[in-house]
Design a protein that fits this description.
- The complex is a heterodimer of chains A (280) and B (314).
- With 280 residues, chain A is an all-alpha fold.
- Chain A has 14 helices and no strands.
- In chain A, α13 packs antiparallel against α14.
- Chain A is flat and about 70 Å long.
- With 314 residues, chain B is mostly helical.
- The chains are: A mainly alpha (280), B mainly alpha (314).
- At the A-B interface, α1, α4, α5, α6 and α8 of A face α3, α6, α7, α8 and α9 of B.
């Protein structure tokens, strides 16, 4: 009897291991290809059968990528744009959601419906008119032009509203009776109770803005205003298909910052989404 | 409530300006509008205004070269109904949006259940799992472009090596192949988001219930249906709806991998609108009309989302 249970447990273990392995292979293969390609010579990239481990790691690809295009400037642009947009979104979305949940005001239902509607306006519709708007404002090739039009507050309002609804009302009422005003309530009660959902929001939107391609492409037309993803695509044009190594090296550099963000924030994310952020 | 009856106080003792402002700010509706106004300003200027401008443009024959078009009513919409490429575009978008999502949901659920088990290096694997979502689509689609290459594809090489195929597969060469290839790349990119959302939801599943059900003899499937599913149902519904909306309005993956080809047969709304409106032809009016044809479907989806959220709150 016990040996049978042990046997079954062993089979379960092996099956679990195999499944994990399969997932790693499928999810990882294209990325493994990019990461190792960044260290290959061009000949190795185009060799058949494929070379799985670069024989002589070409770290020089990273240097070549950095020298071919002004990567430093692209990183500065991406960092300012991403942080700027995320800060605006976080601040405005928190305030709006707070007003929608905790303040007595008419038309909450309608406002919430409009927020949901804003979630679905396709960016291909707004792209061109927004370009015309920032052109008229003289915002082409500026940080405000890169940041403000994409500071999409709707999803944040949705996320925070859903979370605020799960906060214990008694606690808030008690704080109010103690004479705590709205700014105090936000600072001392609501924010501390919302840390996981805030981190979740930050990670989702840091990634989204860091990776955005279409809007920075439209909102800038000078090389020194481009962001990292466009920079890598530009590298693709400069180096061409004959020289994949530096392109893949540029790709690896482009995704490293977000990898760090995710690894740092991971503990929070799992708690955050589970803690009511994405609950109906 | 701190909303003191501001009016009566003012009558009793004349207040200084600062205090009067403070009382005014204490009124909840005023504060609410103040809190909401910055967000609304951005939404109005860069969401509502361009949306209605887009509707107006779709009713004109505006082109890139001719900025002030003339009003033509619904001619652009009618023209599209006779356009064969547009028919294909509609079909492709529906396939792309509705076929990939069930795969992403099921695979994401399985992945989440898997990563919720205890095994060595679990945290590293959880982080690695998210890579497809973290890598910019503009770049991961370049990687897929290499993997799908007509001559150099490692997939073709592997299959040839195993003796399963004779010659290279034209992954992006025919409409059917290209659409399947696009769907696979999309599923690859979209699954991690489902997995992470569901994995998070699983943390809220009470373990005692699981153990109690196991003692009473419920097997894995029964326990999943009775204990786990009710807890994560909300996450499943909301993630699915968002995913359909995002996939429907996708652009980059298709734009990089096929540019709508071969022979304009793999466009989705976003890429076809781009090609007609901004890319080649510069027919802004028709381009806007293409994007707006997406609207009824997205409106239905968001209505479902709204109803679901409301029903949970009732």
């Amino acid at each position: 009897m016990t040996s049978r249970i042990r046997w079954r447990r062993l089979v379960g273990r092996v099956l679990l291991g195999l499944m994990v392995l399969a997932v790693v292979v499928v999810m990882g293969l294209p990325l493994y290809w990019v990461a190792t390609g960044a260290l290959k010579t061009n000949r190795e990239i185009y060799t058949f059968p494929p070379v799985w481990i670069p024989s002589d790691p070409q770290w020089v690809n990273f240097v070549a990528a950095w020298q071919a295009v002004p990567f430093g400037r692209f990183f500065v642009n991406s960092i300012v744009t991403t942080l700027g947009a995320v800060t605006l979104e976080l601040f405005f979305a928190l305030l709006s959601a707070y007003a929608l949940v905790f303040l007595r005001v008419r038309g909450k239902g309608l406002i919430f419906a409009l927020i949901i509607a804003a979630l679905l306006v396709p960016s291909t519709v707004t792209l061109l008119p927004n370009y015309l708007t920032i052109a008229r404002l003289g915002w082409i090739n500026t940080y405000q032009g890169l940041i403000i039009p994409v500071a999409a507050v709707a999803f944040g309002v949705f996320l925070f509203r859903q979370h605020f609804l799960t906060l214990p009302r008694d606690l808030l009422d008690a704080a109010r009776l103690d004479g705590c005003g709205h700014p105090g309530l936000i600072r001392h009660v609501v924010l501390p109770l919302s840390q996981p959902v805030i981190v979740t929001f930050l990670v989702i939107y840091l990634v989204a803005h860091w990776n955005d391609f279409l809007w920075p492409l439209v909102a800038t037309n000078r090389l020194e205003w481009r962001t990292v993803p466009i920079g890598v695509a530009y590298l693709y044009q400069v180096e061409g298909v004959q020289n994949w190594g530096p392109i893949l090296a540029g790709t690896v550099m482009a995704l490293l910052p977000m990898l760090v963000v995710y690894v740092v924030a991971q503990r929070w994310i799992v708690k955050g989404i589970g803690g009511g952020a994405l609950k109906g | 409530m701190t909303t003191a009856p501001a009016g009566t106080v003012t009558q009793a003792v004349p207040l200084r300006l600062r205090e009067r402002v403070r009382h005014w700010l204490d009124s909840e509706p005023v504060l609410a509008y103040l809190f909401m106004s910055p967000g609304w300003l951005i939404l109005l200027l860069f969401m509502s205004y361009p949306f209605f401008l887009g509707i107006w443009i779709s009713l004109t024959d505006r082109t890139v070269g001719l900025p002030s078009g003339e009003f033509v009513g619904f001619r652009n919409y009618a023209e599209l109904l006779r356009d064969r490429t547009f028919h294909l575009t509609v079909m492709n978008t529906f396939i792309y949006g509705f076929v990939t999502v069930p795969f992403k949901l099921v695979l994401g659920l399985l992945l989440a259940l898997l990563l919720n088990q205890a095994f060595p290096m679990r945290n590293v694997l959880r982080a690695a799992l998210l890579l497809p979502w973290i890598v910019p689509t503009a770049l991961s689609s370049l990687a897929w472009l290499m993997l799908y290459d007509a001559v150099l594809s490692p997939f073709s090489w592997l299959l040839k090596n195993w003796g399963l195929i004779e010659s290279n597969i034209a992954f992006l060469g025919t409409r059917t192949n290209a659409i399947i290839s696009l769907c696979i790349a999309n599923i690859w990119r979209g699954t991690p988001f489902f997995a992470v959302a569901i994995l998070a939801g699983l943390q809220a599943v009470p373990q005692e219930l699981h153990e109690a059900a196991a003692i009473e003899g419920a097997n894995r499937v029964q326990r999943f249906l009775a204990v786990t599913l009710p807890v994560i149902k909300g996450i499943l519904v909301i993630t699915t709806l968002f995913s359909i909306i995002w996939t429907f309005a996708d652009f980059q993956l298709v734009y990089v991998l096929t540019k709508g080809g071969p022979a304009n047969s793999t466009h989705i709304f976003g890429t076809y609108a781009w090609q007609i409106g901004i890319g080649g032809a510069g027919k802004l009016g028709i381009g806007a009309a293409i994007s707006l044809y997406m609207f009824p479907v997205l409106a239905v989806l968001s209505a479902i989302l709204l109803r679901y959220v409301r029903s949970q709150e009732a």
